Amino acid sequence: MENKTNYLQQANRLGLFFVVLFILCFLWFYLRSTERELHEQLFRLTFLGFSGMNLGGFILGAIQSYVWGYIFVGLWQAVSKISIKK
User: Fold this and answer.
1) pLDDT by residue (tens digit) across 22-47?
2) What are phi and psi of 11, to 5 degrees?
3) Would you give the distance in Å from CA 17 to the centre of its chain?
4) How far apart are the first and last CA of the chain?
5) What is the DSSP letter of 72?
6) Consecutive H or E run containing 22
7) What is the pLDDT of residues 1-24, one digit of tens each?
8) How would DSSP label each residue in 34-56?
9) How far apart (Å, rounded) are the C-alpha atoms in residues 3 and 73?
10) Is this structure's pTM higher than 0.70?
11) In which element (H, E) is residue 59 found?
12) Where on the phi/psi map is residue 50: left (φ > 0), alpha (ψ -120 to 50), or beta?
């Protein structure tokens, strides 16, 4: 049970960190007007179904950022268990 709680805590923290980074990147798009096309293309590459720099894209990107935290922590723990067994 402790391992599952540890996973949830780590994944939640990393997910929230990714959401904060996403918000900063989203705001940076509007604060700095250089390379807007590149910025938007990188969002489209990173987030599945990203529709643009609007409210829908913001919500979708924030949710996916949070989910990426759970995916990365899960992969990290899986790889760690494999490397410990060898």
Assistant:
1) 999 999 998 987 888 898 999 999 89
2) -65, -40
3) 8
4) 24
5) H
6) helix 2-31
7) 566 678 899 999 999 999 999 999
8) TTHHHHHHHHHHHSTT---SSHH
9) 12
10) yes
11) helix 55-85
12) beta
């900063």: which residue's tokens?
24
Tell me, what amino acid is at 27?
A: L
How many CB atoms within 10 Å of residue 77? 15
Task: Identify whether the C-beta of residue 50 lies closer than 8 Å to the C-beta of residue 57.
Answer: yes
Reading the block at residue 62, the tokens are: 């924030």
Residue 52's Cβ-side half-sphere holds a number of Cα atoms within 13 Å equal to: 1
What the block records as the tokens of 19 is 């959401």
> What is the number of other CB atoms lying within 10 angstroms of the CB of residue 17?
13
